[in-house]
Amino acid sequence: MAARILDGKALAQSIRNQVAEEVARLQTATGRVPGLTVVLVGDNPASQVYVRNKQNACKAAGMRGTLLRLPGDVEEAKLLATIDALNADPDVHGILVQLPLPHQIDDRQVIERVDPRKDVDGFHPENAGLLAIGQPRFVPCTPLGIRELLLASGIETKGAHAVILGRSQIVGKSMALLLLQKGPGGDATVTVCHAASRDVDDFTRQADILIAAIGRAEHVKARAIKPGAVVIDVGMNRRDDGSLCGDVDYAGAAEVASWITPVPGGVGPMTVALLLRNTLDAFRRLEGA
Ligand code: GUN
């Protein structure tokens, strides 16, 4: 069996078009447009590509996309003061501080400083807590994008066994909580495997939906996948020859899965599209629009 492709690029474009239409409508109605400011500290090459994509996507949707760059050796106090200024700026509806941050900066201090009403990343403890109690406000963009892919493709999550590889706050843990929510895109039975899990293949072979977010190139092989499973690959890794690959051995997995996300062109574009939607939501809440 050859798996069907979960085309994140195409779905992301349609979400971005919907956001752009809504931005245009709101601009006519209110005279204002949503604004996202992305803060980039240092010059991590991958982060530079990601933030440029985010900024360009904002502009293409008619939003204000601003990039604020700070040097890699910036003091934490300076970064916190920058966030305070963005929190107070009425033209800024969404704030995203690109991770990872340099070692002299405490991620938690930074994440907690962002006004939770502008936290379009969904990383602030208030937003993480709201998701955990089943009252989501801002949800991290990657899990949100994965849920949209599943919903748009008619993949049933209700009663399905979803196995997540990786327990990061950004992806694995938030994904687990989303799949546990009641209602469409939720109601799954969820298992989270991580670095200390034993016999991981025993779990993955039971997965109706397998989500890999471990950052290890082509680690998940076909033999670990249940025939007919839906495979979601969050990984973005480089092979020794510099080419891009996911956490899943795509060629092998595509032989056994029913659906699979390509890398690139699967989860990545969805993350950017959902960031725009979160920014639009932030605008609506803050402006009462
Ligand atoms: N670094 C990698 N992914 C993300 C993300 O979704 N948000 C932020 N802020 N940083 C990231």
Tell me what you see in this structure.
The mean pLDDT is 98. β2 (35-41), α2 (45-60) and β3 (64-70) form a beta-alpha-beta unit. Strands 1-11-8-7-5-6 form a six-stranded parallel sheet, with helices on both faces. Strands 3-2-4 form a three-stranded parallel sheet, with helices on both faces. It has 289 residues and is of the alpha/beta class. It is globular. α6 crosses α7 (169-180) and α6 (141-152) crosses α10. The protein has two domains: 31-116, Rossmann fold, CATH 3.40.50; 141-267, NAD(P)-binding Rossmann-like Domain (Rossmann fold). It has helices at residues 8-30, 45-60, 76-88, 107-113, 125-132, 141-152, 169-180, 200-204, 250-256, 267-287; strands spanning 4-5, 35-41, 64-70, 94-97, 161-165, 189-193, 209-212, 230-233, 237-238, 244-245, 259-260. Bound molecules: guanine. Guanine is lined by residues 96-99, 121, 141-142, 170.
